[in-house]
Amino acid sequence: MAVIAAYTSPAIGHLLPLTGVLLELQRRGHSIRLRTLGDQVERMRELGFDADAIDPRIEAVEITDWQATKPLDGLARAIETFVARGAFDGDDLQRLLERAQPDLVITDINSWGAAAAAERSGLPWVAFSPYTPAVRSKGTPPFGPGLRPMRGPFGRARDAVAYRVVNGAMERLILPQLNPLRQRLGVPPIISASQADRLAPLTLVTTAEPLEYPHPDWAPDLVMVGPTTWEPPLPAPDWLEAIDGPIVLVTTSSEFQADADIVRVALEALRDEPVTVVATMPAGVRLEGDPPANARVVDFVPHGLVLSRAVCAITHGGMGATQKALAMRVPVVVVPWGRDQLEVAARVEHARAGVRVPRHRLEPKRLRDAVRRAQGMRAGVEAVAAGFEAAGGPARAASLIEQRLPVPPRT
Predict the structure, then answer these.
(1) What domains can you pick out in the chain, each with its CATH number?
(2) How many CB atoms lie within 10 A of CB 143?
C-alpha cells in the first residue's frame, strides 16, 4: 500500500474528475491524503479519504475573467488568479507533504504553487488536467481561439502565424508572473508558456480521440485517459422521477462566469417544444421570474441522473459537462462562454458530435434549431463515446500512477 497525496484547485469541476481516479487507487489498496474545497471535505471523508480543506485564502481569491471584455484580458485575469492562489497553495501542499510523508503526489494543473512544491519535493509527481492543456502540438492550432485543425500548406502557415501570436501573448503574460512565484518556491524558471503545462513527469488529461485532436508528440509525459468524473451516488429527486418524456439538460459553469443567459435563452427557445428542460446553475445565480411549465431550474442535481433520460444537452462548453453528455451518448449544443470553452466547442464540431452556437449569436430560434440538428448527429456521438471507453478512464489513470510509485511500495 502506498500513501498518495492529492491537491486540487478550488473548483468542483476539477475535484470530481480527480475523485474518480482517487477512488480507483483506494480500491487498489492505496491510502489517499487529500486537500480540496472546504465545502467538499465531508463528502470526501465519507468516501474514505483523509481529507482536509485547502488554505481558505486560496478560495478567497476569486477568478474575475468573466468581467473581461476581450479574450486577452480574460487570459490575463485567469493568470493573475492562478498566481495569486499559488502564493498560498505551494506552502499549503508543502505542509501536507510534511504531515503525510506520501510516496507520490498528484497536483491539479491549475495549482501553480502546488506544482512547484511537488517539483521541489523530489517525490514521484503526477499532474492532473481535467481540460486539454495549452501545449504546442504538431498539426494542431494553438490552444485558446477555438480554431479547428486545417491540413495542407495553408493550414501549416495559418498555425505558424497563430502560434506566434497566441503563444507570444501567453508568454508575455505568464512568464513575468509565474517565474517569481517559482523562484520563491525554490524551482527553476520556465522559458515558454507551453512548458507550464508539462512540468510534471506525467500529466493525465481527461479526454480522448476522436473528440480530442491527435497529439503524436505528447507522449510519454502527457497521456489522454478519457473522462474520469465521479458523481455523488444520490437518488433521483422526486421531481425528476415525475417527469414524463424526453429531457434537455442545460448546464452553466460551477465557477462563476456570468453565463446565466444560456439558461434564459434555453427556457425561451424550448418552452413550446415536447421536452422538459432541466437547467443547473451551481454558481449560485438566480433567474428572475418563474420558469416555463416545462422547465426546472436547480442549483445542483447529478448530471448523470438527467442525462440517462436526455435527448440533448446544452452546455456552456465546460469539459466535464460536455464530455459527460457525450460519454452517455447524448448529443450536445455548446455555447462557449470563455476560458477553455471555445476549444471544447471546436472539438465537438470537429468530431461531429454536436453543434456550436457562438455566444454573440445566442437567441431562441438559433438555439432551438441547434438542438434539433444535434439530435441527428448520432454517428459522431457514438464514435466519441467509444473513444472514451477505449481510453481506459479511472482504471488506466490509476495504473499509470501506480507505475510511478516506488518499488516496492510501503506495506
Answers:
(1) 3-226+392-402 (3.40.50.2000), 238-390 (3.40.50.2000)
(2) 24
